[in-house]
Amino acid sequence: MPSSRVLFPVACVVVLVSGCFGGDPAPPPAAPLPDEVPVEAVEDQAADLSVPTPREVDASVHKAGIDKDLGAIVPTWSFHFDRTAANVVAVRVGVIVADTVLTAKTADKAATMARLEQAKQGIATLKVAPKVEATIDEILTKLRADAMNADELFVALDELSVQVLQHESVPAAHDLLALVKAGIWLEGTWCVTEAIKTHGDAAVADALLRQPDVIAWFQKYADATHLQGASAEQANTLVTSLKTLAWIMAQDRPLQMADVDAIQKAVDAVLTEV
User: Fold this and answer.
1) Does residue 86 belong to any structural domain of this protein?
2) Phi/psi class of residue 89: alpha, beta or left (left: φ > 0; alpha: ψ in -120 to 50)?
3) Does residue 1 sit within a domain?
4) 69 within domain boundaries
5) Which of 93, 156, 227, 263 is the most exposed place for a label (fewest CB within 10 A)?
6) What is the pLDDT of residue 141?
7) Boundaries of domain holding 26
């Protein structure tokens, strides 16, 4: 995983994220794909689906018997928000929030504050979550005054991620906050795949990576009306990728290490341009 990454257009994020937890294949399936991939009760799930917090992701990895600190896997980013599309900013904010929580116990204060400042800048750019901005300001104020120890910081950052994931918004901002969730989810997914690969045993992959409810939730945002800005060729590629990922997800077989590797590559395909 490179140390600095450039995000693809938001359409790539919306569609490819829909399959990242589902067992992303290296080769396409041999059988013909259906015209549509059925997704049950997407509308009902969309409003209240809970995306795992970074802390929950980290805990699930350790519970599965993988002795790997996800904070040590987090890469160094080079993000900016100037003259950047709001959709891309939203995903980047999510990634930064995830990284801030995952590195809370290992990063020095300066690094944590830098991530928080960047997350605040991104959220301010989006203009959708003033309460989250206020929470970040409170944490930063305490850190500057050395009024928060490591354990308190970890709890505060975990609560921040929960606030982001559960933030209520007006309809006009709903898609942007959904993409912040996508960023949190994507970064956690990449770290989990790397931890499994380092562990060397894919037996835990199903428990850690298969989340059909999350997939269904994001499929709602793969609707054609949310592919604005994508060319016809891009849209066709994205829809095909989604169908392929959904097809593999539906297979009655456990994930293998090759699937884990393919999932990681799918996430990189969303977040990087190689």
Assistant:
1) yes
2) alpha
3) no
4) yes
5) 156
6) 96
7) 10-271
